[in-house]
Structure formats: structure tokens, C-alpha cells
Amino acid sequence: MRPSKRAADELRKVSLERGVARYAEGSCLVKFGETHVLCTASLEERAPPWLRGTGKGWVTAEYAMLPRATHERTRREVTAGKPSGRTQEIQRLIGRSLRSVVDLAAIGEKQIVIDCDVLQADGGTRTAAITGGWVALHDCLQWMRGRSMVSGNPLRDHVAAISCGVAQGVPVLDLDYAEDSSAETDANFVITGAGGLVEVQGTAEGKPFSEEELLAMLRLARQGVGRLIELQKLAVM
């Protein structure tokens, strides 16, 4: 039995609430159970220096965890002078994931920054950030279309992410913290609406996992991401 009493293939309760930040061009408060992440999309009227003159734009991300998002207060990284290695790895993952479904040439020499701030953490913050970040990005691009800043739809597909793991010898979907902290294997899958794999991260925490377990986690991830994309579609209708 999982700590949450969920079935092996059962997601936590997921919600995607749009338009929660008054001033952002796009925003979404995403909840995966007790993990809550505020995602905002901000348009900048300039491309990064290395893209100037190319006609292409950019989508990037920043990620942060509020001091009391966890059981004990975590020091703000700004006071340390630089983001931690974990933070840099996560925000690069979010940026790569969202860029994979955007026609960067279609947005011109502009940059969209997706800020993902973890309000409350209970496992799966990066997967929630990618899933909610897509909604914020969608609304930012719609805002641009409404002002004739882009033509057509630069957003080519959906993208969402989910965690999987092997806990007590059983492949399971969408780990919360209690499960993640004791699982033998922890993996994250980023998958597009068309079923393409954007990124797969997998780590054996106890014993090495088998090919059969990897494929079982992939099947669970496809099922979970399919449900998340259904929720994305409902959110932006």
C-alpha cells in the first residue's frame, strides 16, 4: 500500500488555475496534491544577445522555492549570491521542456521568461512546474496574438511531466515526498502531446532498476501525462 493510499497508476489530485497573477502576460497556479507552484510568463521585448539579428526568440525559465515551502525554513538563494546546482538543473529542464514545443522563429526577437515559484513542496515540484508552465506560456502567446505581435500559433504541441518510481518493488506513478524519499528508483518523464519524449531522468536510489522496470515506469508516465494534457486542454478552453 502506498503512503497516500493511491493505486500504483493513480495521480494525485491535480488542478490548473489560470490568470492568478494580475500583471503577468500568462499565469497558472498548479497543484499536484500538496505541491503548489505559481508559474508566470513574462514577455521581454528583446532576445538574448546571442540571438540578436537571427529573427528568432527564446523561452527560458527560472525556478525558486519559497523559504517555508518545506517543513523547515530554507534560506533564500539570493542571500547566498547564486542559485544552487539543483535550482540551476531544474530551471534548465523547465526551459528545455517548454522550448521543445515552441516555434522560436514565429515569436520574433523576443524572450518569454517562465518563473516557477514553489509555494509548497511535497515532491514533484519540477514536473508540476513544467505542466503549469505550459499553461502560463500558452496564455502569454495568446496575449501576444491578441495584440498582433505574432501570427499563427507558435505553440506546436502540449508538453507535461510526471514522476515515476519503484517503491517496495512496485512501479508507481506521481511520487509525493513520503514515497520519493524512500523509493528504490526515482524518475521524471517529460512528454509531448504527440507522445514524443523530451527528457527522461532516472536514478537508482537503492538497487539498480531493470529494463522491465524502466519500461513499466514509461508506460505509467505516458498514462499520467495523457491525463495531465487533458487537464491542460480543459484549462485553456
TrEMBL record:
<keyword id="KW-0820">tRNA-binding</keyword>
<dbReference type="InterPro" id="IPR002381">
    <property type="entry name" value="RNase_PH_bac-type"/>
</dbReference>
<comment type="similarity">
    <text>Belongs to the RNase PH family.</text>
</comment>
<keyword id="KW-0548">Nucleotidyltransferase</keyword>
<dbReference type="InterPro" id="IPR001247">
    <property type="entry name" value="ExoRNase_PH_dom1"/>
</dbReference>
<dbReference type="Pfam" id="PF01138">
    <property type="entry name" value="RNase_PH"/>
</dbReference>
<feature type="domain" description="Exoribonuclease phosphorolytic">
    <location>
        <begin position="10"/>
        <end position="140"/>
    </location>
</feature>
<dbReference type="InterPro" id="IPR036345">
    <property type="entry name" value="ExoRNase_PH_dom2_sf"/>
</dbReference>
<keyword id="KW-0808">Transferase</keyword>
<dbReference type="InterPro" id="IPR018336">
    <property type="entry name" value="RNase_PH_CS"/>
</dbReference>
<comment type="subunit">
    <text>Homohexameric ring arranged as a trimer of dimers.</text>
</comment>
<keyword id="KW-0694">RNA-binding</keyword>
<dbReference type="InterPro" id="IPR015847">
    <property type="entry name" value="ExoRNase_PH_dom2"/>
</dbReference>
<dbReference type="InterPro" id="IPR027408">
    <property type="entry name" value="PNPase/RNase_PH_dom_sf"/>
</dbReference>
<keyword id="KW-0819">tRNA processing</keyword>
<comment type="function">
    <text>Phosphorolytic 3'-5' exoribonuclease that plays an important role in tRNA 3'-end maturation. Removes nucleotide residues following the 3'-CCA terminus of tRNAs; can also add nucleotides to the ends of RNA molecules by using nucleoside diphosphates as substrates, but this may not be physiologically important. Probably plays a role in initiation of 16S rRNA degradation (leading to ribosome degradation) during starvation.</text>
</comment>
<feature type="domain" description="Exoribonuclease phosphorolytic">
    <location>
        <begin position="159"/>
        <end position="223"/>
    </location>
</feature>
<dbReference type="InterPro" id="IPR050080">
    <property type="entry name" value="RNase_PH"/>
</dbReference>
<protein>
    <recommendedName>
        <fullName>Ribonuclease PH</fullName>
        <ecNumber>2.7.7.56</ecNumber>
    </recommendedName>
</protein>
<dbReference type="InterPro" id="IPR020568">
    <property type="entry name" value="Ribosomal_Su5_D2-typ_SF"/>
</dbReference>
<feature type="binding site">
    <location>
        <begin position="124"/>
        <end position="126"/>
    </location>
    <ligand>
        <name>phosphate</name>
    </ligand>
</feature>
<feature type="binding site">
    <location>
        <position position="86"/>
    </location>
    <ligand>
        <name>phosphate</name>
    </ligand>
</feature>
<keyword id="KW-0698">rRNA processing</keyword>
<dbReference type="Pfam" id="PF03725">
    <property type="entry name" value="RNase_PH_C"/>
</dbReference>
